[in-house]
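Recall from the previous lesson that a structure prediction takes nothing but the amino acid sequence as input. Here we apply that procedure to Stress-induced protein from Teichococcus coralli. The sequence below is the only information supplied.
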Amino acid sequence: MDQAKQRDIASKGGQSVPAAKRSFAQDPALAAEAGRKGGQAVQASDRSFSRDRNLAAAAGRKGGQATHSKNARGQDESTS
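The prediction returns the following tokens.
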């Protein structure tokens, strides 16, 4: 599936919910509370990033490199 078609499908999903019912968009405090609840659902022994700073840093680095390499590839394709 090409990217334009995928974006079109995703857009329809977002448009199907009225703005008034997008509660997290309307209420940041509700979104924060939901995030807290989600974090509390994970047992402390399984929260590896909070216990191992180096692991968290390595994961962040890996994500950043992946993002930057995608951007570089996109720029290379558009200029050639």
